[in-house]
């Protein structure tokens, strides 16, 4: 794909209430609609009308501690996306599911079903679950260590890939005349026996329109990056600076190429949380107004989750106690830990300044300015090897998203950086990704 044809991939990353941790309190938000499916169906239809590639739901099988002050309830992603699939046609549907707290056979059925229900729009955000609190919900004494989670994730992915391939594309015949429903020669047991899983298969859902859901991943640690370079087709990531995003981008692409993969078959999508105003001052005022709604207790709990340090007893307007950071100690979310430490070392903030920095989008890029400035920055990251597109993270919903669509998209389209119309129907077609053939079909043809 020559540079001229290269266009942005844009996802709407939906966080109930918005990505700013206090957004649910903002005068334009609708906090009571957080469990109203029509609210999300409407939002998904708006993202589709704006020709976005996909909507994305994050997930963790546990309730975070700071629910007293934060909008933290959410539906289970596949259930949520299925209700949205029914009222949309083209928008991709990406949901998170954990390889640590799920069984491969069940998960394979869920995503194959969503891909069928949506005529090929399913994407799976593959996480090992960063929140240690989940372990107690699954009878585990403690959250498995990082390396072990990734070891299990590699085998988990191998099993579900075989299950999604266990029906060849033309195995389902449904031929009433001959009475043959399926060509059993093209339906395969997987007979997987591994360190973590024993799965016979085949799957009880025939092969879905995309063959397999789009493999999405969001790890940034060494384990996370090598997993992503091997398997991911889209990678979500959090960066504060162009330089850090460029370093991540070229590292991931280089790793993938060294594994024989085509760099264009991996979309690197950093998060961006835009605050728009007709002037810079107006945009700054908007960010300030929402920051004013912050409740330190909620922010300090969020910070504890990210860096493993409880600062609740400290003077908020005092300096961040850098000396307490034990770089070899507990790290919360590995890559986010480093991101916070980089902010502390670079900007020497007070605790209040730091929680304001993190409240916007948990370490993702917060961009405050006029639509032109936001479009310029998006273009800069896109053309300077830092991104293939973005996860758009509206600070509050739905106004924060509507403003981006109304004011920034027209500028990106004028610069031919974003599609006017969908050219495909499936998420793979939106991202420009190949449709994988069934491994069993390839083996059968080779052995024929
Ligand atoms: C955009 C984005 C979305 C994420 N969504 C989730 C999620 O839904 N659930 C989850 O447990 N972790 C999520 N994470 C965290 C990652 O899966 C991962 O645990 C984290 O980036 C740490 O990377 P590591 O696994 O390489 O240590 C997300 C990260 C990013 C950047």
Structure description:
This protein is an alpha/beta fold and 448 residues long. The protein has a single domain (9-281, 365-447), classed as Alpha-Beta Barrel (TIM Barrel). The protein has 14 helices and 13 strands. The strands form three sheets. Strands 1-2-3-4-9-10-11-13 form an eight-stranded parallel barrel, surrounded by eight helices. Strands 5-6 form a two-stranded antiparallel ribbon. The chain is globular. The mean pLDDT is 94. Residues 58-60, 96, 125, 127-131, 218-221, 223-224, 236-238, 271, 333-335, 391 line the site of flavin mononucleotide.
Q: Please state the second-level CATH architecture.
A: Alpha-Beta Barrel
By secondary-structure content and strand pairing, the structural class works out as alpha/beta
Beta-strand percentage range: 5-15%
Number of domains: 1
Describe the main β-sheet briefly.
8 strands, parallel, barrel
Mean pLDDT: 94
The number of strands is 13
Query: Tell me, what's the shape?
Result: globular
Series of H and E elements: EHEHEHEHEEEEEHEHEHHHHEHEHHH
- Uncertain segments: none
CATH topology annotation: TIM Barrel
What is Rg?
22 Å
* CATH H-tier superfamily: Luciferase-like domain
- Give me the side-by-side strand order of the main sheet: 1-2-3-4-9-10-11-13
What is the number of helices? 14
Give the helix level as a range of percent.
Answer: 25-40%
């Amino acid at each position: 794909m020559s540079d001229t044809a290269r266009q942005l991939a844009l996802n709407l990353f939906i966080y109930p209430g918005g990505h700013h941790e206090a957004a649910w309190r903002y005068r334009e938000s609708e906090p009571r609609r957080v469990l109203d499916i029509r609210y999300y169906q409407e939002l998904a239809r708006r993202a589709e009308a704006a020709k976005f590639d996909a909507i994305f739901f994050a997930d963790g099988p546990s309730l975070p501690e700071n629910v007293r002050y934060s909008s933290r309830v959410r539906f289970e992603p596949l259930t949520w996306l299925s209700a949205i699939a029914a009222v949309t046609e083209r928008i991709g549907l990406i949901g998170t599911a954990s390889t640590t707290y799920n069984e491969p056979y069940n998960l394979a059925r869920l995503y194959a079903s969503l891909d069928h229900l949506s005529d090929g729009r399913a994407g799976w955000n593959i996480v090992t679950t960063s929140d240690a609190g989940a372990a107690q919900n699954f009878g585990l004494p403690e959250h498995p260590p990082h390396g072990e989670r990734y070891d299990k994730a590699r085998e988990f992915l191998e099993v579900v890939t075989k299950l999604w391939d266990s029906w060849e594309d033309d195995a389902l015949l449904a031929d009433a005349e001959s009475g043959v429903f399926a060509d059993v020669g093209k339906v395969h047991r997987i007979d997987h026996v591994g360190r973590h899983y024993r799965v016979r298969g085949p799957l009880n859902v025939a092969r879905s329109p995309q063959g397999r859901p789009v493999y999405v991943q969001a790890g940034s640690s060494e384990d996370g990056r090598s997993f992503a370079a091997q398997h991911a087709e889209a990678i979500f990531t959090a960066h504060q600076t162009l330089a850090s995003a460029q370093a991540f981008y070229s590292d991931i692409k280089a790793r993938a190429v060294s594994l024989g993969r085509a760099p264009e078959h991996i979309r690197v999508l950093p998060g961006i949380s835009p605050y728009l105003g007709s002037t810079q001052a107006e945009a700054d005022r908007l960010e300030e107004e929402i920051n004013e709604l912050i409740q330190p207790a909620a922010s300090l709990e969020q910070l504890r989750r990210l860096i493993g340090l409880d600062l609740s007893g400290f003077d908020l307007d005092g300096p961040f106690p850098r000396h307490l950071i034990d770089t070899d100690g507990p790290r919360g979310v590995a890559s986010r830990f480093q991101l916070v430490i980089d902010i502390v070392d670079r900007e020497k903030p007070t605790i209040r300044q730091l929680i304001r920095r993190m409240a916007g989008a948990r370490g993702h890029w917060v961009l405050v300015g006029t639509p032109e400035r936001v479009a310029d920055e998006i273009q800069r990251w896109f053309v300077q090897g830092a991104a293939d597109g973005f996860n758009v993270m509206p600070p509050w919903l739905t106004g924060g998203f509507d403003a981006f669509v109304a004011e920034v998209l027209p500028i990106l389209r004028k610069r031919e950086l974003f599609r006017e119309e969908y050219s495909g129907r499936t998420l793979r077609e939106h991202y420009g990704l190949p449709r994988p053939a069934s491994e069993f079909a390839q083996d059968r043809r080779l052995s024929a």
